[in-house]
Model the fold of this input.
Amino acid sequence: MNPEIVSTHRKESLREDGMLFVRTEGIFDTMVKIPLLVASMIIVAAVMPIQSSFSSPRVLDLIIYPDGSTHVSADIDVDPLVTDYELKLFGNTIDNFVVVGESGFLLNTDVIGNSALIETFGSSVITVEYDIHDLVSKQGRVWTFSLDSPSDFTVLLPKNSAIVGMTNLPINMEIIDDQNQLTLSAGDTEIDYLFSTTSLIPDSIDSTDSIPKFDYILYVIGGVAAAIVIGIIVIRAKQKIVKPIQVQDITQTIKTKQETETIDAETIFKLKPDLREDDKEIVKFISNNGGQALESDLRKKFLQPRTTMWRAVKRLERNGVIEIEKKDLQNLVKLRKNMEYEE
Amino acid sequence: MKTLALFTIFILISVASISLVNDAYAQNDPSILLRIATQADKQILNQLDRSYDNSIPSKIQTLYEKGHSSVESLKNSLPNDIEQAREDFLSAMKSFKQITRMISEPVTESKLTSSDISDKDLKSKLNRLHKYFQSLKTASEKHNTGIDFSEIDQLFTQANQQIDSSEIREATQTIQQLESSIHEIKKKIRENTSDSSSDRIKKFALKQLTHIQKILDKASSVDSDMPELEKANLLIQEIKTLISDDNISDAKKKFGELNKIVKTVKKSIHQ
Done:
């Protein structure tokens, strides 16, 4: 790469009318400073996931009780290098506040008004649970749940409640123990509901599930097409430059093939003798399921709440037994192929 | 270098595409909208029948027709016109919300009796308390504190039975007893885990101090006359002493001071 502009370019491009033309060959390298561009892009790519993962709850589940009080359960990523974490609560009237660190320790907390100071001391994930009386109000027979949520969340409505008004579009709806559980996106949400003696579980839960998600498909096609085009450009560029890499690729492929052999559950238990019994059951299920399963399927199989299963999955991930991949909006839990003996 | 640049652009576009896909998927599953709107429509119709029989006020009738036609339009919009479906959903839910507010006021007193509310409130309170207790119990079992929870379990059973048989006063007393017992349990758990909790804090603090010491050493090699260095080193010694004396709260305060100084030192190094 030659950063200098050769003077002959100028001579060649100076025409009779006095206009100056510059040859574009090499101008990108010369003027844009590729290393700078690459470095800034890498930084942007690295920062993007961090911004969305720190400080806002990664799991936020709410349960509304028949008297309008609400139980809040949140798993939050915190900076393990600081001593405290200040959490903004959803209101002032808080009961039964409890925070547990990732190692299961009860953490010291100080709740003042609508914020809580939590002594995290090295925890990277904390689980916060509390009851709050500020989120539901009642006018006549209508109960109104209002929340400005920093992240996507689920809300389990009381038994025999019927939704009669809503200001937000729901992402999902499930029936859990005859109760409606809605998944909603971040931002302002208001749900009106009332209690009724008639049957309130909606009909044909799965009948319309086959309706295509057009937006989703369009974006996938667009993303894949863009990725393929750029992928081809990169591959062609590579082929021109370095041929011997192909040999290395073949070796890599063989290595990858060896790694893709699934380890059975018994081998995992030998490698990781300290696994909890309930975690072993999860591992067995994943192993019998071909080495992978969706976290939602695990919840259904073991009848566990979202947070409990999430903690179990994270525990297995920390133990190096599984790895978590994002598939659509769901967590795909896969048994790791290359596992190490427990120290 | 060009290949690297292209590869980075490829990665960036892939990341951006994935986030776009997530956002798009996060909008909604259209069938859910229809399920909720249909359920609300049925519910509103029930309410109107119950409240007015055949003499529905014209304003409410108009609102209901608007909401119902939005539900019908929602049915027709799916699966092809998602944007229209979203609009129909919000329009229907808005109409139903207005109707519910209009019809709920006059019938409130006659429909809900005080005993119903008491039962419901106590049951809710008991359930919340049980969830809280479960969190504490899990933490306790995880650290093998050996605390006996059988008495509290028994109190929960008793309170449930009392609520089911409408013994409101007795149930209230049992719940008060439960609150006090759970409070005591929380204290016990803290006492029983205080040693390992303190070890955890000490471990964290010492790790952090080592990290800070490295920063100070680096700063010292750049500018050994920096006035903050001496103060920071002094604070490190103080924190170590406080930690060995189990004086965690004072150590934490000093930690705050030290962190501020370290920030200043870091800035000086980078200038």
